[in-house]
C-alpha cells in the first residue's frame, strides 16, 4: 500500500466507510488525529477516534469496521461521548472532527 495519502483523501475514505455502515453509525462523531491529520507525507496509518452514544454502539462498530479496508492501516479508537469527555480525549489526541453523523442520518 502506498504511504502517500493526503488528509483530504483520508477524510474521503472515512466518509465512505461511515456511509457503508448505515444506521449503526448514526449519532457518532468521527475524529482524525496523528500524522494523517497533520498531513505528513509519510504517514504509516490512519488514526481515527469515533465517539459513540453507547458502549453497545461502540462494540457493534468495532465488529463491523474492517481496519484493513482503507489505503493505510486503520488504528481505531472507539469511546462513548462520556468516556471521551472524562479523559479529555479530543484535546489529548489533538484530533479534528471530520464527520458528524446525525442521529437519523442513515
Written account of the structure:
With 106 residues, this protein is of the alpha+beta class. It has a single domain (7-100), classed as 2-Layer Sandwich (Beta Polymerase, domain 2). The protein is 39% helix and 23% strand. The chain contains 5 helices and 4 strands, in the order αβαβαβααβ. It has helices at residues 7-21, 34-37, 55-64, 81-87, 89-93; strands at residues 29-33, 46-52, 74-80, 96-100. A 4-stranded mixed beta sheet has the order 3-2-1-4. Helix 3 links the parallel strand 2 (46-52) and strand 3. It is globular and about 35 Å long. It starts with 6 loop residues before the first helix and ends in a 6-residue tail after the last strand. The model has no long low-confidence stretch (mean pLDDT 94).
Task: Walk me through the topology.
Blueprint: H1 7-21, E1 29-33, H2 34-37, E2 46-52, H3 55-64, E3 74-80, H4 81-87, H5 89-93, E4 96-100
Compact overview of the structure:
This protein is of the alpha+beta class and 106 residues long. The chain has a single domain, classed as Beta Polymerase, domain 2, CATH 3.30.460.10.
Largest sheet: 4 strands, mixed
By oligomeric state, this entry counts as single chain
Structural class, by secondary structure, is alpha+beta
Strand order, biggest sheet?
3-2-1-4
What are the low-pLDDT stretches, counting only 5+ consecutive residues below 50?
none
| CATH topology term | Beta Polymerase, domain 2
Tell me the number of strands. 4
User: Beta-strand percentage?
Assistant: 15-25%
- CATH top level label: Alpha Beta
CATH superfamily: Beta Polymerase, domain 2
- Mean pLDDT score: 94
If you compute it from the alpha carbons, what radius of gyration comes out, rounded to the nearest whole angstrom?
A: 13 Å
What fraction, in percent, of the residue positions are helical?
Answer: 25-40%
Total helical elements: 5
Per CATH, the architecture is 2-Layer Sandwich
SSE run: HEHEHEHHE
The general outline is: globular
Termini separation: 31 Å
Structural domain tally: 1
Amino acid at each position: 500500500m502506498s504511504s502517500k495519502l493526503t488528509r483530504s483523501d483520508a477524510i474521503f475514505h472515512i466518509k465512505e466507510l461511515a456511509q457503508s455502515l448505515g444506521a449503526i453509525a448514526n449519532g457518532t462523531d468521527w475524529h482524525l488525529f496523528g500524522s494523517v491529520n497533520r498531513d505528513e507525507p509519510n504517514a504509516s496509518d490512519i488514526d481515527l477516534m469515533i465517539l459513540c452514544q453507547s458502549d453497545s454502539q461502540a462494540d457493534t462498530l468495532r465488529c463491523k469496521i474492517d481496519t484493513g479496508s482503507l489505503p493505510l492501516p486503520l488504528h481505531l479508537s472507539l469511546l462513548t461521548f462520556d468516556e471521551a469527555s472524562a479523559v479529555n480525549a479530543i484535546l489529548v489526541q489533538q484530533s479534528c472532527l471530520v464527520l458528524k453523523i446525525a442521529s437519523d442520518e442513515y
